User: What shape does this take?
Amino acid sequence: MTVHTEQPLDRTARRVLVTNWRQHATVPAARLYPHQWSWDSAFVAIGLRHLSPARAQRELESLFGAQWRDGRVPHIVFDPHVPADAYFPGPSFWRSNAVPEAPAVPTSGIVQPPAHALAAWLTYCADPATARARGFLPRLYPRLVAWHRYLTTRRDLTGSGLMSVVHPWESGMDNSPAWDVPLSRVVPAPAGEYTRRDLNHVAAAERPTDADYGRYVRLARDYRDAGYADSLGVHGFAVEDPLCNALLAAGEHALASMAAELGYDPRRHRSAAARLTDSLTATLYDPTAGTFFPRDAHAGTLIRSYSVGGLLPLVVPGLPVATELIKTALGDRFRLREACPLPSYDLTAHDHDPGRYWRGPGWINTSWLFWHGLRLHGEPSLADDLRQRLLDLVRTAGFREYYNPVTGAGHGTDEFSWTAALILDLIRTP
Ligand code: 2M8
Assistant: This one.
């Protein structure tokens, strides 16, 4: 694969990233998501490092510039120049300005999957000289450490050694069928209390239902009204999610590399990575199913729903069950060799919906994570095959937010930033 043979695709991907750049960061999509999103910026940096390492560094620095004093990195950093009614819930809903730990810029109060340490290390490796000249690691490393500390302490709600997500939006896979049972216990906020903005841009059949949206609003409001305090008593929804914990473990490996580069002792990060990997495997892996399942922190039980998040611990170096995960991905539920992108949810499930947001369609970011994991665990030919099919898909269907994994039809919004960034990375990574 050379940049030369992929020139038109490479050029269009670059154009999407230029269009969505806003002085210091990239918005996921100009109309549907007109602010900076946390894990989107991590994926965007992974692509931008090939175009402009300094811009990739700024992408992450601007996000961490909005880090709260308690270490949390908010899932949205609002652009004060964007009209208040462009996105719901906006700054007046989250009211971060009333929280002493929050920064001056308005933000949300929830988080997203911690893909940032991995992204920061890949960004650094793309151009260490520029990173050194800009003081990238000395500035970012302590902030990443504080971020992981928040997640591994305040968000360890059960004492299992694993972090919990306390809102479906925190999982990044907002509408996943895995959240249906824990979410069913949440009483929706009345529809008259708020106005959805997402349906101005995308068909209702491709977005969450009104009932689920009401539950999202209720959870966020309760958290806000509790001053963003973390405890099982506050959170009506709390789930130990395999993807988030896997990204934390992979991130500790990245932090170990950064610490070594900065002349610090990397061993604390290696031990943290080993502890997280052990807890993840002991608590969330199901050997008969060959996948990881999320655990409902209130009920203390595994949620036996096959979503792509259960395969993504493949990003953890040295994961003891990598072979089993790859076998599950090759099976009927995910059909790694044919379906593309990797489906977000079990193809054989009765409620698989190939067009609705996180309930079936495939996404480029989760496919990229699996591709990264395949390379990490010594499967170059499966990885190359997946890469080729992802490039073919996007060449045909464009830079969409998500895709039907069987027909390849595009869904959601268009000119989507992480699709462009990660396609660039797939083109340009040797
Ligand atoms: C989607 O989530 C936002 C809420 O955060 C939304 O639906 O309004 C998810 O796909 C999430 O993973 C993503 O980070 C975000 C922006 O691309 O959109």
Remarks:
- Residues 28, 33, 37, 39-40, 75, 169, 172, 174, 198 surround 2M8 (CB under 6 Å).
- The mean pLDDT is 96.
